[in-house]
Amino acid sequence: MSDDQHAKGSMGYLMEMGALKRGRRSGWWIAGIRDPESIAEHSFRVAVIGAVLAMLEGADAAKVALLCTFHDTQETRVGDIPWIGRRYLTAAKNQDVTRDQVADAHPVVAAGIQAVVDEYETGDSVEVLIAHDADKLECMIQGLEYLEQGYSNASEWVDSTRAKLKTASAIKLAEAAQGMSSADWQRTYLR
């Protein structure tokens, strides 16, 4: 492939990632939330949470944020399949979806993205553990926010995701979140 074709392939991947801003986290529909967060909104906060958890755990915050950023990028092609739906479907592995997504990208880009997704899906480093905790903690926090908005069915997501947290820092932050309102952060500045 020529440099122009690689540039177009890389840009095609970047354009495809825009679909994450429009795709909704469909599991929340089961809880009765009509307009749930987008996949991109979820992924952004997962990356921030991941970096914070990594700092607290003494791990590589940039690496964790990178793992978190790419953890749901395959959902442009397969959608956000809720856990209950996975019971009835056989879906492609995220690594296989990513391979197709980056097939026409510059080889350096394709290899880099593939390595990140492969590590998130199969790695066992502390950074991978933290990235997975960040995904769960974000879901729990989002559930708490939906509970505040009156969606009582979100409590199951809060409880089930909190129970899956593994790192001490994620567990500590989850405990703190359950005693807070989503508006608590601004109260100090409004005085």
TrEMBL record:
<feature type="domain" description="HD/PDEase">
    <location>
        <begin position="35"/>
        <end position="149"/>
    </location>
</feature>
<dbReference type="Pfam" id="PF13023">
    <property type="entry name" value="HD_3"/>
</dbReference>
<dbReference type="InterPro" id="IPR003607">
    <property type="entry name" value="HD/PDEase_dom"/>
</dbReference>
<dbReference type="GO" id="GO:0002953">
    <property type="term" value="F:5'-deoxynucleotidase activity"/>
</dbReference>
<protein>
    <recommendedName>
        <fullName>5'-deoxynucleotidase</fullName>
        <ecNumber>3.1.3.89</ecNumber>
    </recommendedName>
</protein>
<dbReference type="GO" id="GO:0005737">
    <property type="term" value="C:cytoplasm"/>
</dbReference>
<keyword id="KW-0479">Metal-binding</keyword>
<comment type="subunit">
    <text>Homodimer.</text>
</comment>
<keyword id="KW-0378">Hydrolase</keyword>
<dbReference type="GO" id="GO:0046872">
    <property type="term" value="F:metal ion binding"/>
</dbReference>
<dbReference type="InterPro" id="IPR039356">
    <property type="entry name" value="YfbR/HDDC2"/>
</dbReference>
<dbReference type="InterPro" id="IPR006674">
    <property type="entry name" value="HD_domain"/>
</dbReference>
